[in-house]
Specification:
By secondary structure, this protein is an alpha+beta fold. It has a domain of 185 residues: Roll (T-fold), CATH 3.10.520.10. The chain contains nine helices and 17 strands. The strands form five sheets. It has an eight-stranded antiparallel beta sheet. A three-stranded mixed beta sheet has the order 1-9-8. Strands 4-5 form a two-stranded antiparallel ribbon. The radius of gyration is 21 Å and the shape is globular. Bound molecules: adenosine-5'-diphosphate and magnesium ion. Adenosine-5'-diphosphate (ADP) binds next to helix 7. Magnesium ion (MG) binds next to strand 10 and helix 7.
């Protein structure tokens, strides 16, 4: 008989922030953004900050991200860049510049595993605005179409100039921030709440989360890491419970938004070095980081790199990551980077 599963508990190494508030209550708001849902919760014992004010602040932060970085909103700064003529130079607004800077850094460091200029390939495989992989009659692209798109995904061709916030459109390069913008939005909302005098908060955009301070009673915000569904005959994995106390978490997985045809699975993350959706057997990668932008972007980068290279790069950069691999025998196995193990001890 299998022995009962031990659950894993991850806690940050340092406590920080304000003391718990006596008599506090948890308040919450939620809504929709970026094709997904958002949720904020805050713990306070006074009504000095009304829910209306919180909602307006959250909405302003989310709207800014969408207006600048959405590939789905015609006229967003990102959309205008994507449609611009070849050989044009663009001044990127502040928030978008922050994200582009981080994205290009991670693209360099990961050898293009994370690629903010992968839009042409993402669209080709049906994961962009259109055509959608869910459209009736959608067919995967031909090798020739993939070759053409591969010529339009070089992030270095953007000649990103951080000092002057300038990016170059060489022609046909499509930015796609879907693997990093949700995390950035979480950071902005979290900072906004803190600036409003709310230090005890949990922010969630589409499953990317950031927590600060404590709940009433002095407990941190506990969340369970998302994990792949366990199929018949698979041994279940332990639940990993994290104290999001000055900490963010993001998970990339191959079991959501996946195109399945003739038994083949095409997840919505593309390896822009090969031009094809991932097929490296990774079921999910979760990353913990102080900033949600980095948790989000690293989880995608490590997913593309695969377990071996991913663990090596994450370890070299002190990144706390949990890899779940689908093994050849069908079982799921976990690998923790050293920084992740430290949180579990
Ligand atoms: P989720 O949206 O489920 O959190 P990710 O954060 O991994 O998942 O983001 C996946 C999205 O990022 C895709 O839908 C696509 O728009 C874009 N994308 C796909 N491949 C890459 C890549 N190699 N680098 C950066 N972005 C990518
Ligand atoms: Mg991501």
């Amino acid at each position: 008989m299998d022995r009962p599963l031990m659950n894993r508990v991850l806690v940050p190494l340092a406590l920080n922030g304000a003391a718990p508030v006596l008599g506090a209550q948890v308040h919450g708001l939620d809504g929709q953004t970026m094709g997904t849902t958002w949720q904020v919760r805050w713990s306070t014992n006074h009504a000095a900050v009304s829910a209306e004010r919180v909602k307006a602040g959250v909405q302003e932060e989310l709207d800014r991200v969408v207006e600048q970085m959405s590939a789905w909103l015609p006229g967003s700064d990102l959309d205008r860049f994507n449609r611009a003529s070849a050989g044009t130079q663009h001044t990127v607004p502040e928030a978008m510049a922050e994200v582009l800077q981080a994205a290009c850094w991670l693209a360099d460091v990961s050898g293009g595993a994370f690629n903010p200029a992968a839009g042409a390939l993402v669209n080709l495989w049906g994961f962009g605005p259109s055509p959608r992989y869910t459209d009736p009659g959608f067919a995967p692209p031909t090798d020739e179409a993939v070759r053409h798109a591969l010529a339009r995904v070089d992030w270095r061709a953007l000649r990103w100039d951080a000092a002057n916030s300038q990016a170059h459109q060489p022609g046909g390069v499509l930015l796609d921030f879907s693997a990093i913008a949700k995390g950035y939005a979480v950071d902005r909302v979290s900072q906004r709440l803190s600036a409003m005098g709310l230090p005890h908060t949990l922010v969630d955009v589409g499953g990317e989360l950031r927590g600060h301070g404590l709940r009433p009673g002095g407990q941190p915000w506990w969340v369970d890491l998302e994990s792949p569904p366990v199929a018949q005959g698979q041994r279940p994995l332990p639940t990993t419970r994290v104290a999001l106390h000055g900490l963010s978490v993001a998970t990339s997985g191959d079991y959501r938004r996946v195109f399945v045809r003739d038994g083949a699975r095409w997840p919505h993350t593309i390896d822009s070095r090969t031009g094809r959706p991932l097929a490296n057997g990774l079921a999910s990668v979760s990353v913990l980081h102080a900033e949600c932008l980095w948790a989000d972007a690293w989880s995608t980068a490590l997913t593309v790199l695969g377990r071996e290279e991913g663990v090596a790069l994450a370890s070299a950069h002190g990144i706390a990551a949990l890899f779940v691999q689908r093994e050849r025998d069908g079982q799921l196995t976990e690998t923790l980077t050293p920084a992740m193990q430290e949180l579990a001890e």
